[in-house]
Structures are given as structure tokens and as C-alpha cells.
């Protein structure tokens, strides 16, 4: 997806060996026009696949999923990382290890929102080790629903997540796959 | 806004004396069609007001702000509650007390994203005690920007936040104002 790759090259920032900051347009400040292009592209990639719901994880997946959902005409559910008085006690839970935050955290979805018969598209901003996507799949399966696929904005192709998911038969569509960082710039597959 | 009030009455749930759960459409599962109507209504309310950026707070403000931003044609910035390796160290910070979570938490915005000359619209899902909105205003002012207004989906009119903000000369537009809960159902102003 050219517009996305250009945004990464022009507005992204490589920090150290393997961190790509995209906070100018994807996960702190949000370029809503680009998110619309991303949403349309997810719809194009998953054309013909039955999707009843989009599942993502707070916080950076929410904008991507919400804008994309306009093209799929389905509701979004986002998994919560923080317990709250307002959250149902009756939840599906799973543990996810975050390499960025260097800790394990629990994510939860109210049982009301994942049901048998649901065909769920998981959307997220990054795929690196694949832990968030595997956690969301676990929640989908706990709810007796089907994982229709995983849509990722930026996949770090040099990390194992993509392979781990695809080896388990999960359909993964990434709009930009970074093969490596060379002299401080991403190189796409 | 009738569609919103109907959603609150039909799909919301009053818990105890003062908690309104709207997790079926606003802050866990997201009804993206309704969010579009909400976004259009914010645009109508703030017609003629110069807005250069929308500021909200993770997690439940993000979908509302992102969908609304499509009608304002401006970027969204969301304040972060969780520190992360990927977040700039150079941030505006403020403390916010959450009554729902019963604790103080820090919110942060990278200094890159709030600038002199910005006219900022703050959007959020709920207004109760007004602490989140005041925190976001503090960040706007630290950045030398101007607070153009505060747009709220659901205001709890029986709590003090709306009065506190309006008494300070802040323009607050709430799409649904709940005056009280009567026999387990919200009564609108």
C-alpha cells in the first residue's frame, strides 16, 4: 500500500535497532485520511470473506478498527487492558506479553460481545512477535466464534509473529511488511 | 440528539445509583453508524468555530474522536495513560483523578503534537466530575494552544463537571445530558 509506505518513510522514525515510531500518524497523533485509505484496503483484501465483527485491542488498534469498520458495516469490539468498575465481571481473559512495555498484561472482553457464529476479523497496528494477535485469537475461540483473519497495518517481517500465525493456518494480511532497517530507514518486502 | 438518547434508553444499563453502562455501543463494543451520527452532530454544534486538532484521551475517546475528525478534516491526538518505550520523553503531563477507577493517573501528550496557534476541540465519551476535561485543558494550555471547546457524548448533569467547566468560561457541548436516574432509567434534561 503505497500511501502507507510513503507515510512510514516520510513521517516514521527508526529508533535503535528495531523500533519504528509512527506516532505522527498512526498511534498517538492520527492521520484520519490515511486511516480511511487503510480501512478501504483492509476491505479490499478481505473482500468476499464473511465478517460479522472486528476485534482489536486498546489503545492503538481502536482508531484503525473503527475507521475500517465503516467499510465492513460491522461493530467493533476492543479488548481492555485495564480493569474498571464499568466492565462486566463475566469476561473472556487471556495473558499477553508486551515486548514494548516489557511485561505481561491481561486483556479482557465481555462475554456478551463474542458469540457462536461470529466471524471475527482481528485488526491491529503492528505485528512483531504476534502475542497480541494470539491473545485475541484465544478470546475469539473461548467465545466459540471463528477467526476470519488478521489484518495488520505494519508487520515487522524480521520478527517471528507473522510466521507463527501463518504456520497455525491463520490468514494474515499486512499492508506494509518491513524486511529490515537499513541505515535508519525501513526496507519493505 | 434523539438517536443517541434512544440508544442510551434501549441499549444502556443503569447500575446502582449513578453508573450508566453503555458498553454495548459506546465504550467496549462500538456502534460505528451511531458514532458517525455523533461525529456529524459535533460538527453541526461547532460549525463556524475554527478547529485545527481534536484531542481526546485513551481508550474510550479514541473511536469517538477519530470518527468525528472525518467531518472536521483535522488530525486527532489522544493523550496516553500508560508510559511506553515508544512514547517521547518530551511530553506535556497532567494528573487526572478517575472516580470510576478510584485512583489518580497521569496523562501525557508528546510536545510535538500541541503547538502555539492550535485551536483544539476536546472530545470525550462522558462528563461527570470533569477531571479528564480539565486535565486535557491543562495540556492544551501547556502547549500554548487555545481550547476551542469541549464536546461530550453523555454528560451526567447531576454531577458537577459541566458547571465547573462552564463557570471557567469553557464552551461545553453535550449531546445527551442526564438529569437523574429514575427507577433505573436515565431522565434527560
End-to-end separation of chain A: 12 Å
Overall structural class of chain A, as computed from helix and strand content, comes to: alpha/beta
The CATH topology of chain A is Rossmann fold
The largest sheet of chain A has its strands arranged as 5-4-8-9-10-11
SSE succession of chain A:
HEEEHEHEEEEHEHEE
Would you give an account of this structure?
2 copies of one chain form a homodimer. With 189 residues, chain A is α/β, with parallel strands linked by helices. Chain A has a single domain, classed as Rossmann fold (3-Layer(aba) Sandwich). Helix content of chain A is 29%, strand content 36%. Chain A has 5 helices and 11 strands. The first copy, chain A, has a 6-stranded mixed beta sheet with strand order 5-4-8-9-10-11, with helices on both faces. In chain A, strands 1-2 form a two-stranded antiparallel sheet. In chain A, strand 1 (13-15) and strand 2 form a beta hairpin. The model of chain A has no long low-confidence stretch (mean pLDDT 95). Chain A binds chain B through residues 15, 19, 21, 23-24, 27-33, 35-36, 58-59, 62-63, 66-67, 69-70, 74-78, 80-82, 84-88, 100-102, 109-110, 112-113, and chain B through 15, 19, 21, 23-24, 27-32, 35-36, 58-59, 62-63, 66-67, 69-70, 73-78, 80-82, 84-88, 100-102, 109-110, 112-113.
Summarize this structure briefly.
Chain A is of the alpha/beta class.
Key terms:
six-stranded mixed sheet, alpha/beta, 29% helix, Rossmann fold, 5 helices, homodimer, 189 residues, globular
Amino acid at each position: 500500500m503505497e500511501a502507507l509506505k510513503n507515510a512510514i518513510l516520510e513521517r516514521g522514525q527508526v529508533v535503535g535497532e528495531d523500533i519504528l515510531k509512527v506516532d505522527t500518524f498512526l498511534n498517538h497523533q492520527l492521520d484520519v485520511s490515511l486511516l480511511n485509505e487503510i480501512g478501504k484496503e483492509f476491505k479490499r483484501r478481505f473482500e468476499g470473506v464473511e465478517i460479522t465483527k472486528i476485534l482489536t485491542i486498546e489503545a492503538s488498534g481502536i482508531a484503525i478498527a473503527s475507521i475500517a469498520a465503516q467499510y465492513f458495516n460491522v461493530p467493533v469490539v476492543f479488548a481492555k487492558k485495564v480493569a474498571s468498575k464499568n466492565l462486566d465481571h463475566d469476561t473472556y481473559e487471556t495473558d499477553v506479553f508486551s515486548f514494548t512495555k516489557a511485561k505481561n498484561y491481561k486483556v479482557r472482553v465481555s462475554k456478551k460481545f463474542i458469540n457462536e457464529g461470529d466471524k471475527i476479523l482481528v485488526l491491529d497496528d503492528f505485528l512483531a512477535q504476534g502475542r497480541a494477535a494470539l491473545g485475541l485469537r484465544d478470546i475469539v475461540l473461548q467465545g466459540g466464534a471463528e477467526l476470519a483473519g488478521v489484518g495488520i497495518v505494519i508487520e515487522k517481517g524480521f520478527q517471528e509473529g507473522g510466521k507463527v500465525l501463518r504456520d497455525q493456518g491463520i490468514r494474515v494480511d499486512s499492508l506494509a511488511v518491513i524486511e529490515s532497517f537499513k541505515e535508519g530507514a525501513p526496507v519493505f518486502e
